[in-house]
Design a protein that fits this description.
Elements: H1 3-8, H2 12-22, E1 25-30, H3 37-44, E2 50-53, H4 57-69, E3 73-79, H5 80-83, H6 87-95, E4 102-106, H7 116-131, E5 135-139, H8 142-159, E6 163-167, H9 169-172
Parallel strand pairs: 1-2, 1-3, 3-4, 4-6, 5-6
Helix pairs in contact: 2-3, 2-8, 4-6
Length: 176
């Protein structure tokens, strides 16, 4: 990435916003999470995006899949514990139908987060993604954030496959 572009993104959520816009990802469906607050605030403040909450992560995946089949690009935002509910819908809908459902997961249960439920799901998230053959990348550094989001979106749409971006506390600086 050119130095000018890297300097333009002072925060992780600015890098994410730029990558979403660069790839015409306009629909954002989410289940609220404290770590995602800066990203969600920026998305809601920008008329480029249509954003709203879902009651459950499975519902959010269904909405983004339906939008993808209608030609609208979208992404689901959630936290690690919400990911725990998704194995069935990912396997039976996104993977089976080759739908490029994009997910961004704020990683919890690691690096000082001692909530047992979060820690267990954190240990299972990557193996589940791997088992389902879902491309996934963990974002840990601001200087790589735009590149990782941009390339993951491009790959998902060119291969017609779901993909997940995991926000590490090393990037977000938060754990709750």
């Amino acid at each position: 990435m050119p130095a000018a572009a890297a300097n333009a993104d002072a925060t992780w959520h600015e890098a994410v916003i730029r990558a979403l816009k660069d790839n015409d990802v306009k629909l954002i469906v989410y289940v609220p999470d404290n770590v995602l607050k800066p990203l969600l605030s920026a998305i809601h403040a920008d008329d480029f995006f249509t954003a709203f909450t879902a009651a459950r992560e499975e519902e959010a995946i269904g909405i983004v899949c339906g939008a993808a089949m209608a030609g609208l690009r979208g992404m689901v935002l959630m936290q690690t514990s919400g990911f725990a509910t998704l194995a069935n819908v990912l396997a039976s809908l996104c993977v089976a139908a080759q739908i490029p459902a994009l997910m961004m997961v704020s990683e919890r249960g690691t690096l000082g987060d001692f909530q047992v439920g979060q820690a267990i799901v954190c240990l299972t998230m990557r193996p589940i993604l791997h088992t389902l053959g879902i491309e996934h990348h963990t974002m840990t550094r601001l200087d790589e954030a735009h590149f990782i989001v941009d390339r993951t979106i491009k790959q998902a749409y060119l291969t017609q496959a779901p993909a997940a971006l995991i926000l590490s506390p090393l990037l977000t600086g938060e754990r709750s």
